Structure formats: structure tokens, C-alpha cells
Amino acid sequence: MGGTEKVEESLKSERSKQVTSEAKPDFRKRLLITLDSFRDGGSEAVWWSVWWMFMVAAVYSRLHYITMPYRVVWDEAHFGKMVGWYINRTFFMDVHPPGGKLLLALFGYLGGYNGTHSFATPNTPYDGYHGIMPMRVGCALLGAGMIPMGFHTVWVLTRSLPTAALAATLLTFEVGTITLSKFILLDPLLMFFVLASFHGLCLSHNAADRSFTRSWWLSYTYTGIMLGCVMSVKFVGLFVVGVVGCYAALDLWNMLGQTYRPLVNVMQHLVSRVLCLILLPAVIYLAVFCIHDHLLFKAASVFAAEEAHFSPGFQMTLKDNQLNNVSQPDEVAYGSVVTLRNDNLAGVYLHSHNLTYPERVFPKKLQQVTGFRAKDINNHFKLLFPEEDPDLSDGFYSGEPEFLAHGDWVRIYHTATSALLSCGKNKSLITTKHNLVYARPYNLTDPPQVDAASEVFNVDPSKISSAGVSPWQMWMVHLEGGKPGDKVRTLHSRIQFLCIPNNCALTWPRAPLPVTWGGGQAEVTCSNNLKDPYTTWMVEQHFNPYLKNKTFTHLRSGFVSRLVESHRVMTWVNSRLKPVGEQRYNSHRPWMWPVCFKSQVWYDVNFRIVLLGNPVIFWINLVFLFVAPLLLLHHYYKHKRGYTPSPRLAERKERIVFAVKWLFLAYLLHYVPFYTMDRILYYHHYFPALQFSSMLTAVVLGYFLESLPSWLSPDTARLAFHWTTASFFAIFAYSFHKFCYVGYGHPTVSGFNPDNSTFKDIRFFDEWEI
Questions:
Q1: pLDDT at position 72 over 80
Q2: What rounded mean pLDDT belongs to the chain?
Q3: Where are the domains of the chain?
Q4: C-beta separation of 477 from 497 below 8 A
């Protein structure tokens, strides 16, 4: 019996070895079958497995280190304040449309944030404040949504699973995109809606042969909704609007050239695109602005500069603003105290203060007169007769009030510093072709005698006031469209103040004074161009207890007026965002972006975060940006030479050509326009274009990999495909491993030291502060 058992055990052992030896080739065979299924994209299970794999990678990569640091980082100081203002219903002005900030506020509201954190400066801690991290998580999830969006976009364009996977890999492992997605910023929202809009374009093209079916209408409606969303986040969303618009116009043009198609059908397509791609986005944008306008109904404070960018009619709609339900005299009299506002877009208030112009230029210590965009006591001026001073103890004139009218002369007296507005013979410091405007001390109770000869040349002495006031301190009132006897009216009249000896008008030349001695306030001068529109002023606030008050509610702006004015102000402020001082060093020019030439430090207080893209992905993308147009030229060359591929190959090439053409156009429209902008630019402005560049790289690379069978034998092509694909995945993953904590951030002991840095071995350029 013992011998028999040993024989049976021996047989079992041999069978086990045989099964094991047979299992090995079965595993390799199954692996190759899976890889072949991945290459062919024929298995639905493999497709969904790949999709879910990237979905998990996207969410994990964006949520990793989401709370680090637990402090305000870079522009979170900017947008975090705005979230608080939305929650507290406080008005503010920003250069971007309100949609993105409203979405951030929604994240905060759903997370329980009460809007009380100051977000004063970067590095302000979040400790003790609930609901701030949900805003970061909301941004990160939208950033993660870009990966499945990009994956499906490329899949719809090419019907190639490897190409879609390559696109998702490039989007997943791009370090700079992750950095932008982890914080309370508009960038993840913008990039998500940009990709979603292009995704809708691709779905619409895919449904072109099913016109007016349910799927066709859904694809165009989806595209229109995403266009409305992207325009509501930032104005650069208009770039993707341009891409979709070009596609729609070209599509309609091709339909018009199809003589077999009835003209009625072409008109139906035109109307449907107008409805979905123009009216629907416009309605969404207007609805977003309406919500914004409805929420922000309180002024920040009575002296806030936020609402001072806007017209008096706009300010009247804000609770707690000085002009809200204002009651003040209508007709302006001598002795009244007024504020004078330049009657132009974002006009400044006439302002003065106890600071002088530089002594090296004006040794007489002339007091500055500037333009200031905030309600301040230093904006108050008293309007005096040319010669007589107020005779009442409260600073007003006795007797019946005399009203200021067209053609009258007036002295403009700054009440806070007891000085008269004057126009010198000197040229202004910044706008040198204009005359200098300054304030000269003047005591109303005991006016000094002025030696006119020291200040006035070629003027009849009889015109010099006996009270010691020179013509340089008297201004002629000229009403726009006025005639003699027309009175100056508060908030209604448009006025020029003319200095007759210099033949010039008080104006705002839109130039800022140096920060060092002028605080960056606006320059106010006297211009010889009397037709300059910036020489026009208005009386905004009017104080005179001896005159009857009236209300001005009829001047309140309506919704349409507020909408138009808000966009004019946003455009004006955006155009004036020029790099100044240290900003010149931190700003980036567009040529630097594709080569990943320069980094941008976001945070460096015991934890260092640097915005730097994955350079491997940037440089590979740059190569394929040159290859892509060559591929298109090759295709059109062969087409012109009469080459006719097989129907299956022709369909594949048609897909590839469409994908390359529109991805390349989308990249150009999101990148090239920045060369025309002279405003301050940063590295993050490139990242919407980068997403198209990455998808373009995937499409071109995928096309070359799928073309291997036409160059190699089937078995060799199969192996070359798998090894090449695996190599690219490995390169991208390894580059992510090397650079990811540049963007995620890492603890530091002290400030940046290039010679003792964790990442000094991978610093390719000196401009990389890593």
C-alpha cells in the first residue's frame, strides 16, 4: 500500500507541474489578447475598464494633498474674498464675468462656509473656519472631470481606444494642470467648460448624419449650454466660442454648396444653430449676470472704491451707498460743498490731500491735486465767488442764494486742506503736454495778498482780484450744450472748468502718478484740447443747508443699463492691467509657455508650491505641434495626387484629418491671441491651450502607432505597438513621479536655495525656481 501511495503522489505532482507549465502560456496568451483588445478597442469591457482606471487616477491625483497648505495660496486671496462677498451680499467689481465666482460661492455655501474669513493675504491660516476646503474639493473635482472629458472627446474623434488612453494619460500626468485644479481659482472651472464645449462640438459632428434627431438636438443643446458656462467664467472663453463658431459656419457653408439639399433644409439648420449656439449661451450668460446682480445689493462701505467705478445711477441701486435714496439740492449755488466726478467710464473724483509734488521739480511745495476712485472727505470742494469769501460762521454766504450758471467764474476751494485749486504755468509731470494743476493754501478768514507778477505773465493787472486771488485760481464754468443763464444742476449738468489765462480745461488724462510720491493716484491736469471728452465733470454730491433738497430716484439705472455699464467697466479695467514693478519679473510672455521656460512660485512659507508644467509633456507636445500640420500637408498632397485609399482606411483618415485640423485650430485660437495683448500675463493663461495640445499629440501619435501594420509585418507591428505604447505610458508616469511634488508642494525648512534644493537635479533652466 505504501508503494501505491507514493506512485499516486508522484503522478499528482507531475500533473500539478504540467498544469502550472500550461498555465503560464495561458496567462501570456490572455495578456496578449487583452492588449490586442485594447489596441483594437473592440471589447466594451476593456473600454470601460480603461475609462474607470483614468477616472480613479484623475480624482486621486487632484484630491491628493488637497488641504496642503491649510492657508491662503496665491489668488485664493482674490477669489476667496469674492465668495465671502457673495455669501454676505456685498457688491464688488471684478474683471471677469460672474459665473465662475458664483460657482465657487455655491461650493462654499454647500460646504457650510459663512463668508467670514478675511482672505486678506496669502499665508493667512484657515484654522477655525468651516467650509473652505469644500471649495478646493469642488475645483479639484471639476479639474478631475477634464480627464474623462478629454478621453471621450478623443474617442469620439478617432474611435481609437489607445489614442483616447494616450490623451487621458497626458491630461492626468500634467503637473501644472493639477496645481491649478487644487485651489480656489477660476482656472479649473474655465478649463473644464472649455473642454466640455469642444466635446460638444465633437458630439455634434458625430451626429451630423442624424440631423434633427433627439441625439442631434441633445448634442447641440449640450454645446450651447457649455458655451454659455465658459463665457460666464472668463472672457477668454470666447476663444472656444470662436472654434465652435468656425465649425458651425463651415458646416453651413458646405451644406449650402450641396445642390441636392433643399434651401429650406439649410435654413432649418441655420435657425437650429442660432438657437443652440447663439441664443442659448446668451440666455445662460444673462441669467448668470441676473443672479449676480440680484445677490449683490449692498455697498461694501460708504467710502468703498468698488462701486466708485460705476456711474451715480448704478450706485443708487446699492444699499448703504451714499447715493442710495440720496436727498440733496438740485441747483448748485455759490458756497455749496460738492464732489466733482469726471463724467466718463470709471471716472475719478477730483481730490487733494496734504502731500506735495517732488521738491526737486517744484521747490515751492505745491500741494497735489489728483483723481481718486473712492468716496473720501478729501473729495469735498467748496464753490466760492471769484472775489468774495463766505461771511457766515458755518462757511456759507448770507442773503439769497446765487446759483452757478453757464459762463460764471468760480473758485474751487478744498475744504480739508484750506487750499484753492490752481493752474500753473508749469507743465505737468506725467502728461507733459498739459499744464500742472495744484492747490495753493488760502485762509478764508484772512486771505493773503498774492504778488501776481510772480505767478502771472502778460495779464491785465485790472483782472487780478483785489483779494489777492489770481486768474490762475479762477475757473470759468462751461455747461455742455448750455447757454447764458442755464444753471448747474446736481447729477444732471456736464461741466467744463476753464482756466482762461492758460486757455485750458481741467481734465483727467488717465495716467497714474508714481507710487513713490503720488500713491499711484490718477493725474489731474489742464488740457489745451477743449474738445477732449475727459475735460467734462459733474457734481455728484451736493451739500448746502440753505437750499431745498430733492430726490434723484429717477436716475437709478435699470438692469440693462447695469449690465452694459458693468461690461464696459470690466473691459476698461482689464485693459489697464499692465505689469508694474515686481510684477514685471513674475509675468510671463507667451513665447515662454510652450517651452516651459519659466516657473511661478505660488507659496513659500515652510511649504513650497511652484506652478511648473510637466516639461516632458510640454516638450513632446511642442514636437507634435510641428508634426501635426506636416501630417495635414501630407494628406492633402496625396489627395491632390489622386491617391484613393480603401474605404476603411479612407474613413479612418477622414477622422484623423478632422481631429488634427480642429484640435490644431483650437490650440492656435487659445494661444496666439495672447501675443496681441499688452496686459499682464501669467503662466496659467496657457493651460487651456495646453489641453488641446495634449489631445493633438495623442491623436497624431495614435495615428502613427495604428499605421505600423502598413510598414511592418503583422507580428512585428503588434509587438512594436505594444512596446511603444507601454514606453510612452512609462515615460509620462515617470516624469510625473519626478515633478509632481513641485506642483503638489513639499515641506521646507527655509526659503528657496537653488544650490540646496530637493529638485536641483531636474532643474533644466535657471528660471525654474524648484
A1: yes
A2: 88
A3: 327-551
A4: yes
